């Protein structure tokens, strides 16, 4: 909530219609991804993660920092087609269910690089989606298959997310869109390199 508040204070908003279609797509994609992950080996999941990150990196680079910097005003009611929103939501949900990464990266990249939504606004939307229990159906699939975690680990991750989200939102709102775009490319590239190292070791 604190991260969302930071973005709202900086002027980022999202039409409810966007959130509705993104949510529907996310839930459907998440369930499909969770079932798909149950039939994949650990090695296949690791390399899928690497391919996913490299794909997002390529999309971000194709979008270009200059294109991201052209958005001088926050899009408040741009007419995004429902099919495009469903596609982004489904892709984000699929990555969340299959790779267990929340889908936030796919949401931000899909909205900003593919649909032209300013990155600050896309990041705020991603945080709002994380508040909606979109991951519960796919988590239920994992739980039914015997994959669970201790409450202590879950609480620790949640507390870390709350603190990290607030700090990250503060930082993101202090830098311009072009710098934020380049920062995301660097971040995703480092993640891809790290996951490649883990998959090879």
Brief synopsis:
The protein has 201 residues and is an all-alpha fold. The chain contains ten helices and no strands.
Explain the overall architecture:
Helix content is 77%, strand content 0%. With 201 residues, the protein is mostly helical. The chain has one domain. α2 packs parallel to α8. The longest helix is centred in the C-terminal third of the chain and has 24 residues. About 5% of the residues have low confidence.
Please indicate the count of domains.
1
Structural class: mainly alpha
Q: H/E element string? A: HHHHHHHHHH
User: How many strand segments?
Assistant: 0
User: Count of DSSP helices?
Assistant: 10
In quaternary terms, these chains amount to single chain
Feature tags:
77% helix; 0% strand; globular; mainly alpha; 201 residues
How are the SSEs placed, and which strands pair?
Layout: H1 2-9, H2 16-37, H3 42-63, H4 65-69, H5 82-99, H6 104-114, H7 119-131, H8 136-144, H9 151-172, H10 177-200
